[in-house]
Amino acid sequence: MNEIKVDHVTKKYGKKVVLNDLNITLNYPSITGLIGRNGSGKTTLLNMLIGYKKPSSGVIKVFGENPFDSLFVSTNTLFVDDRMQIPNTLNLNEILIEMGRFYPNWDEQLASKLFNYFDLPPNSLHQNLSKGKKSIFNMIVGLSAYAYFTVFDEPMTGMDEAVRKDMYRALLKNYLEKPRIMIISSHHLKEVEYLLENLILLDEGSIVFDGDIEAFRNYAVGLTGKVGKLEKWAETKDLLYHERVAIDDAYVVIKNNVSQAELDLYSQKQSPVETRDLLIYLTNKRRGVIDDVFKTDEIESSK
Amino acid sequence: MSIDPRSTEPIYVQIAYWLENEILKGTFKADEQVLSQYALADMFNINPATAAKGLTLIADEKIVYNRRGLGKFVSPNAKELIVEKRQTKRLEPLIRQITEEASYLKMSEETLIKKIKQAYKKAGEFDE
């Protein structure tokens, strides 16, 4: 009952399938990274988890309840993003007071300490803040509410490097104080990787990876070897990427499900694959590579 | 020492390694409590589940033991276990690597040993 469950959930807009048959479990407590490119369906998924939208089919349970139209879920969840609805008739200080009335676990002291630390103007209106300051304010709300389920969707938009670093540190400290369910959605895996326990990678509405962050780091292996020998063999495996290096050497990336002996037999060097690169390989399959765009001559001549 | 997120070694392995070093140095003595997953997470700025994995790793090797509800404590024979494990699993492969490289470079045994002696002296100073 403490967890969040997504059971065979599909979301369509008209005929377009935006999310295709997703199954996800988020345990209490945990921090999960939701990573995907623009248009992968991240925000749609988050909107459904938080109860802003309904799935076309399938079932979502947040702490045992359907989040859509549930007051219980809405007082215990918080969605931090740059489209947060903040009234413009109240100044920042008044908004914080109102937030404290709505969220049962609101920590007034934390809110005002963060507010001072990040030097926000208490009498200003939200709409008059810079992009970075808006994000800072939204984060302060997200952390101080201590909602049992908190979603951060690209929460650091517009913040400078130093502030981002502080804010990630604040997020971790905040979690350690009261561990709960958090999702951090971002384009920048590298920036949040160390904070995460789990990772969900979405691509074109489907889950490409769902598991332990450490398992993701070991998901693939990079191999260097002689073109003839390595390439042919790699094609019989789960090949994620390949390129020619030097004259007769090749570099390939395959799924890490092959015995060490076999790796030694077909490659000369094995290396770990950076998570940043792995993300690209796993979400590039149907897109090809940028070089393909410039290949018009070849395509025409082969016709 | 700090955690290197770019290292090929998983963060939880680095945590286990750090804890082992602290036990060897005597920061945590036999039957004393080691840091909790939350204290480690705070200290190294990582997810507490990752820190917990590091603790589990050395618990599985009996370097620390569990006291229900209290946390993890250093085993009386922890130092011996660490030394034994690290000599075979860590030090010996490193020695092989160094000697291999030295022989590629046609470095004499004498020069290599001299360099090792110098480095050993420095490591001793560093430890103080």
Query: Percent helix among the residues of chain B?
Result: 55-70%
Low-confidence blocks of residues of chain B: none
Q: How many DSSP helices of chain A?
A: 13
CATH topology of the largest domain in chain A: Rossmann fold
Average pLDDT metric of chain A: 91
The name of the CATH architecture of the largest domain in chain A is 3-Layer(aba) Sandwich
Strand order of the largest sheet of chain A: 5-6-7-3-8-9
The major β-sheet of chain A equals:
6 strands, mixed
CATH superfamily of the largest domain in chain A: P-loop containing nucleotide triphosphate hydrolases
Question: Hey, roughly how much beta strand do the residues of chain A contain?
Answer: 25-35%
Going by CATH, the homologous superfamily of the largest domain in chain B would be Winged helix-like DNA-binding domain superfamily/Winged helix DNA-binding domain
> Could you state the order of secondary-structure elements of chain A as H and E?
EEEHEHEHHHEHEHEEHEHEEHEHHH
Largest interface pair: A-B, 19 and 16 residues
Count of β-strands of chain B? 2
Give the termini separation of chain A. Answer: 59 Å
CATH topology of the largest domain in chain B: Arc Repressor Mutant, subunit A
Named CATH architecture of the largest domain in chain B: Orthogonal Bundle
How many helices of chain B does DSSP assign? Answer: 5
Give the averaged pLDDT of chain B, no decimals: 92
The first-level CATH class name of the largest domain in chain B: Mainly Alpha
Tally the beta strands of chain A. 13
